[in-house]
Amino acid sequence: MPQNEHIELHRKRHGQRLDHQERKRKKESREAHERSHKARKMIGLKAKLYHKQRHSEKIQMKKTLKMHEQRKTKQKNDDKTPEGAVPAYLLDREGQSRAKILSNMIKQKRKEKAGKWEVPLPKVRAQGETEVLKVIRTGKRQKKAWKRMVTKVCFVGDNFTRKPPKYERFIRPMGLRFKKAHVTHPELKATFCLPILGVKKNPSSPLYTTLGVITKGTVVEVNVSELGLVTQGGKVIWGEISPILSNVY
Amino acid sequence: SAALIDMSMMSSDVERLLIQFQDEAGEPLGSPFDVPLDITPDKLQLVCNALLQKEPVPLAFFVRGEAEVVESLRVCVKALGVETEAVLPVVYQPQAVFRVRAVARCTSSLQGHTEAVISAAFSPTGKYLASGSGDTTVRFWDLTTETPQHTSRGHSHWVLTISWSPDGRKLASGCKNSQICIWDPVTGQQMGKTLTGHTKWITWISWEPLHLNPECRYLASSSKDGAVRVWDVVLGRCERILTGHTQSVTCVKWGGDGLLYTSSQDRTIKVWRAKDGVQCRTLQGHAHWVNTLALSTDYVLRTGAFEPADATINPQDQTGTFEELKEKALQRYNKVRGEAPERLVSGSDDFTLFLWNPAEDKKPLARLTGHSALINEVLFSPDTRLLASASFDKSIKIWDGRTGKYLQSLRGHVAAVYQVAWSADSRLMVSGSSDSTLKVWDIKTGKLHTDLPGHADEVFAVDWSPDGQRVVSGGKDKCLRIWRR
Question: Is the pLDDT confidence value at A234 over 60?
Fold first, then answer.
């Protein structure tokens, strides 16, 4: 371990031996023999450590060689035939927009059989009464506070008639009554505006379910007869369950 | 005749009418006959059969060739508003002697394909069943046990179209990699070499009719590359290349008179001479892609020498020397063809069909409008009297096979109708649709006979066996279903 540059200085001043390159070359070529001699003759702990290190070195070398080899040969792309076989008359046409409806419908049906209102829902925050219902003051001196008005979108059925105002505790304003919902099919990425048939379950409270309040995560039944879906038994499907996921506050 | 005279004597106080029986070509049969106005079709049948002096056959009667006599002559006359003074021409049409029973249940669901089933066909005698699929195999199925028989591997891409030779001894299949293979249904092995030559996928394969060549040696294939090739199957080479179309050729049909008809996406239909490949005629008129062609003699060319009326419970192979088979096939062909040359119908993306007389005329006989979406398949009934068109507008329309007049619409499907198949007696028709159901329609009443649900996904291929016993359907759910009575 030279502490200063005296070796380099000497080389610069006086140059190298005349046969330096020759000796260097020969020494390097002897290296393989010397290494193998060492590997054979070593014993004890030193040998163990050396062999372990040498083993991992060899593995690395093999890997790089293989990599180089692979780059040399050109591999033909996978011969696997593509999915989505269609008959000749459908080949030049755009993929059927209803391609996945039926298979999804079957999966939905199976899910329905398994657990009635099980739809993939993200965990929703339960909304408290103060958020959904607003206190309406009534009476001559505006002291009575037993009426509530719904502040969220709700669905009332076709045959809905208001109770007499004196007895109606929950008010659902006309402006917040919706009949149709935009339903997006997740696979087809197509959105349809379909009439709502009913509110199945509101995750926050059963009271909201009976009132028909629609908040995030509410499961709603929509009328899909215009999509023309058919079950495996040959019956035409007219209703589907889906959750409300967005654009509801 | 004594019974007939009695009948006419008895009802002498009823209104009577003079009718003249005529066959479909307009030739009169016997002299004008005096019949009571209330006469029913069965009595008319007795009279007509007596006049024909042949084996009694079931007949249908059409007043003046238009209105069918269903209950009594009186109803027809009233409907048409014809005067009862003049002689009324009544056209008689022999119906098929045998009656095919409607299929009602699914006897088996044949699994085996690992991808969607894209094509399925019965052999001309109904003995073998073959299906081509997206998993690049052609599978043969044993119909007596309804189990798989052979799996034929040889294609490298989806098997788009399959076609049986008219003698039922060979099956040709074309794939998306533009290769055609010939298979032997008995062993499941490939016969001869793979026929290569097309540059894009094969859209249709059509064999030379049996009565022109009983060896079944030549076939014509059409492809997306716009060319039609005539192959010699024995030598395994291409005999002729017919170029002329500028876009994909969607369908090729080898007619019984030695003419080849091809339809293409370039909106034209070309008529070629099969012998030397010379183009005879170009039929123009469509406004969009021509998807499908149908010849009036399609069914009889497909079945060759096999007569569906002679079918037995266990379908047999065709036996006989080449001459015998050729003679039989020629007889059948001439009977169905009649005096007039073959008629051709083309269905297109422009929602209309054209009825042509391609051997003689460049102008269409009729333009059939009415569909509200593209037409996927057209098919003549086996007796060539009716024409069915299946369309993406969920309906099937029935037209008169001779004049092209609209007869009725069959509605019931809730999604695009992909394929139809007629039963051998032309009384029933089955249709397969994208809504995964098949429906059997009774043509006489125009109503739905049976609904056949069961597939889990779209139904791509439908076929009715020529012996009338089975219907096969294959679809996207990878299984093949066999339906029987």
Answer: no
